[in-house]
Amino acid sequence: MNKILLKTSLFATAAALVLSACNAATPTAAPTAKPAATTAPAAPAATAKPADPTKPAEPTKPAAPSATATAAPTVAPPTAVPAKAKGGTIRKSTSGFKGTLQYWVLGYQPNRANATGRLMDDAVAQFTADNPDIKVEITGYTGDQAGFTKLTQAVQGGQSVDMFRLPSDILPLLVRDDLVEPIDAYLTPDDKADIYPNLIEAVSVKGKAYAWPLWVPPVGMYLNLDVFKEKGVDLPSKTWTYDQFVETAKKLTFTRANGEKVYGFTAGIDPGLVNAWPLFMNEATTVLPLNKDNTKFTFDTPESIAGLQRFADLALVHKVTPPDFGSQAIADIANGFKKGVYAMYPEPSGASSGYVADKINFDVWPMPIGKSGVPVTAGGIGLISVAKGKDAARVKAAMDLARYLTSKEVGDDVTGFYLAPGARKSVKVADPISKFEPFVASCYITPIIADWPAIRTIIHPELQNIIFGKKKAEDAMKGIAPEINKLLAAAK
């Protein structure tokens, strides 16, 4: 059996996000004062040359090492191949390729350190067992702005990536610069019948599809049931209102006898995350970052401003959040939830399998309903894309692996592989992922446009400023509207 070569990138955080389970990490100490929000960093241009890894990054920009500035691969012990599904044929590549594929995976941690790492190792082991001439080297990257920047630059480099798992809003930037292979020529009739048509449409640009849809991970509210029990707080209704959510968070904010502070709520606030957005988007059905045709910024409307200010009041008025709310590392939030320091927080489905493995007593609730009166959550489409390449056999091998890793067959081969509801009709998920299936119908998908990564980077520091009480929501959103509208106008 082939060995799977595992490689970790030199990323600043070991966080997993929306599409992956979180691994335990030692939480950092909470600051005694709220950090200042910075101005929006310039979004890296798709055609920009990656920065020299020896040059220090500019203070207001995310770190941008070159695509080759990664740690040397760590060769892991051979992974045991799980029993194969009966009659499966998708695993077998018909490419004739002999060599090593470079695969970048969102949220992957090597040495089977988290759920994504364990499951991906097992799935790739199945594929390489049926294709002994193909090896796969996996690089993990984090689901925050720094991680997305590293992925983008690696793909731009054209040497260290054959295929990559990514969220949907990163795709258009890479397509615009002709860095991604269309999948249309590789889709079989069975693929076309099985993948939900709206998801193929979502990953298409000018009639060509540029990614294999994997799953749709909607955000849900994670509840630490031990904290609820400790304070004698009843679980709310699954149709709970925002006001009921606030009252619940207040009851779950307290100090233990040993002096440990427990907070009713926290959330990851990062340019690469929309986990907290449903808590202000529920103000009205019109509260969206952009209008329906993605031509105008709309977080500056009266309804959006009201929702954003109400969300910030969780920290500023209700005091149910930790002191560093708005700047916490994703891994620290997950670790605090495991330890019962945070009672509730929003995240997509990926973390749930890790919590089950860690025997955390938790459940997942729908996001609370606001003044809009209707459920709303947010998310993206998890995708696997293949980088543009001149070697036809290599590209075909990557396409074959991508098909397998988005199929029903991989779910049959690797129990628990799907960390979110699948993109194919044939894929069925079990508990705890099934908890998220009811949320898919009310899931807002972030804009799949090339300028979205830049736009969310502009929004982020202003959202922080609102949370920290440095700006009112109206001033913050109206202040960035001209810049974002200029970006959108230039894209027409």
Termini separation: 52 Å
> Could you name the ranges where pLDDT drops below 50 across 5 or more consecutive residues?
1-35, 40-79
Largest sheet: 7 strands, mixed
The helix-and-strand class reads alpha/beta
Task: For the largest sheet, list the strands in their spatial order.
Answer: 2-1-4-3-5-15-8
**CATH homologous superfamily placement of the largest domain:** Periplasmic binding protein-like II
Q: Count of helices?
A: 15
Q: State mean pLDDT (0 to 100 scale).
A: 85
Task: Identify the overall geometry.
Answer: globular
CATH class assignment of the largest domain: Alpha Beta
Task: Please estimate the helix content.
Answer: 25-40%
Strand content: 5-15%
The CATH topology annotation of the largest domain reads as D-Maltodextrin-Binding Protein, domain 2
Number of domains: 2
CATH architecture of the largest domain: 3-Layer(aba) Sandwich
| Gyration radius over CA | 22 Å
Counting DSSP E segments of at least 2 residues, the number of strands comes to 16
Description:
The chain has 2 domains: 5-217 and 381-436, D-Maltodextrin-Binding Protein, domain 2 (3-Layer(aba) Sandwich); 220-379 and 449-490, D-Maltodextrin-Binding Protein, domain 2. The chain has 15 helices and 16 strands. It has helices at residues 115-130, 145-157, 171-176, 189-194, 197-202, 225-231, 242-251, 278-281, 302-316, 330-338, 350-357, 392-405, 408-413, 452-467, 473-490; strands at 5-8, 74-75, 99-106, 134-141, 163-167, 204-205, 208-209, 212-215, 220-224, 254-255, 261-262, 344-347, 362-365, 377-379, 382-386, 443-445. Strands 2-1-4-3-5-15-8 form a 7-stranded mixed beta sheet. β6 and β7 form a beta hairpin. α14 runs antiparallel to α15 (473-490). The radius of gyration is 22 Å and the shape is globular. The protein starts with a strand and ends with a helix. The model is unreliable at 1-35 and 40-79 (pLDDT under 50).
